[in-house]
Design brief:
The protein is mostly beta strands. Helix content is 10%, strand content 28%.
Length: 434
């Protein structure tokens, strides 16, 4: 009897992506798809495609998570820290890295140096924006030839064939790259992730934040800073500072399994770590990293070499009286509840949509806690209280079982701090999360 070919879901996605790519390059797809004006291969705009606004690659790497997760039935053996991890690091992951402007040799050197969470980027409303997505492979898993996609979760104007959902879209095979063209019309907070083998790739770390700034930005007559979440027409979503709070989680067994060429049983999923911008408290309040050295590698945050590949701080700092925008993103597999005791937040948007009725009636609401499910976003603004000395507040997950690090006493997980300074103490913000 002839040996039957076993077509797994992973192989099916590879075959499907290859056939679709062949169909596209052979012009078997309708020509209108390539000229949608929304999301398309940038073949007709090669100058911009070759010099993209951001160049991302998919690869693997290692990050740091404190504490220990023992392997059941063993003595002194742990899923985390992984014994194969480089010195100072603990946890294997998949992820993206920003290689914009790097040489080919520098890009290749970023293999095994993925970032958690993925690089943050933003786009202006009606801006033509190019993303080049490359795939340099998984060094720890040479047996996996997984493709990668960039699915902009919630983007309203995408043609399905270019949406990053691999069953009906294009994926980037290992060793290749592809340019994507975006022209967003809807401001608000979004997220992006790889949609190839999405359960595995999303959980392993291929997730990031992206948002769209409204056309109203720059109108200082509506709000002094000229910064807005939405095109509100009245300045009600104006703010002075903004911070992305991207929630993810880590099931240590799955990360160990992928590093050790084992197959996780996703039906047994149970998260061990609960992350905020790729870190757990108290590391969430450590400084930002993210600058590149002469070799194109990330420079660690000051005093925290273990956080080299977790560069996004969640520390919120502001002056008294300022309005602070919190862009909440939930890329875990559960509902979450983020709370700011002592500070009242005004929720102005949800899922990149201004909270107003069709007749213009405001649906904003005030709360100390925001509740949102997997794959959802919340835009909330608080006004910093009037203080004469630096004052600290907390922002944390009200699900208290998300506030620990395994094997480590004290507060951990999805928590950070809000430092309110006397008026005029710190300069104006120049970039999110700074």
């Amino acid at each position: 009897m002839s040996k039957q070919l076993r077509l797994s879901r992973r192989n099916f996605l590879k075959v499907g992506s290859g056939l679709l790519a062949s169909a596209f390059t052979s012009r078997l797809l309708p020509k209108t798809l390539g000229h949608s004006g929304e999301v398309a291969l940038a073949s007709s705009m090669m100058s911009s495609a070759e010099d993209p606004d951001i160049h991302l690659i998919g690869t693997d790497g290692w990050i740091y998570l404190p504490g220990q997760v023992p392997i059941p039935g063993t003595i002194d053996q742990y899923y985390n820290p992984d014994p194969w991890a480089p010195e100072g690091l603990t946890t294997y992951m998949f992820g993206f890295a920003n290689v914009t402007g790097l040489t080919d040799s520098q890009i290749k050197a970023r293999k095994m140096k993925a970032q958690a969470s993925a690089p943050l980027f933003w786009v202006d409303e009606n801006q033509e924006y190019f993303v080049r997505l490359g795939n340099i492979g998984l060094q720890m898993r040479p047996d996996l030839f997984d493709s990668h996609t960039l699915h902009w979760h919630g983007f309203r104007n995408a043609w399905p064939v270019f949406d990053g959902e691999p069953h009906s879209s294009l994926a980037v095979p290992m060793g290749e790259s592809m340019a994507l063209y975006y022209k967003p019309y809807d401001p608000g907070t979004y997220m992006y992730h790889c949609h190839f083998e999405e359960t595995e790739h999303v959980h392993m770390g291929m997730t990031g934040a992206v948002f769209v700034r409204p056309a109203q930005n720059g109108n200082t007559g509506l709000y002094p800073s000229g910064k807005f979440v939405y095109n509100d027409g009245d300045g009600s979503t104006g703010y002075d500072r903004e911070f992305v709070i991207n929630l993810t989680d880590v099931w240590a067994e799955a990360h160990w399994d992928d590093a050790h060429i084992q197959l996780p049983d996703w039906t047994s999923f149970r998260a061990d770590y609960f992350l905020m911008n790729g870190r757990v408290y108290p590391d969430t309040v450590a400084p930002n990293g993210g600058l590149l050295d002469a070799n194109g590698d990330l420079i660690p945050p000051a005093g925290h070499p273990e956080l080299q590949y977790q560069p996004i701080s969640s520390l919120i700092q502001c002056n008294a009286g300022e309005r602070v925008l919190l862009r909440f993103i939930n890329l875990t597999f559960a509902n979450q509840a983020m709370s700011t005791p002592g500070l009242k937040m005004k929720v102005v948007g949800k899922d990149a949509t201004l909270l107003r009725g069709r007749d213009g009636t405001s649906l904003f609401y005030d709360t100390n806690s925001v509740f949102y499910g997997a794959g959802q976003t919340i835009d909330a603004i608080f006004t910093a209280p009037d203080v004469t000395v630096p004052t600290k507040y907390m922002l944390y997950n009200r699900n208290l079982n998300r506030l620990y690090n395994p094997g480590v006493p004290g507060l951990g997980g999805q928590a950070t701090e809000i430092w309110v300074h006397p008026s005029g103490s710190i300069p104006a913000q120049t970039a999110p999360n700074t």
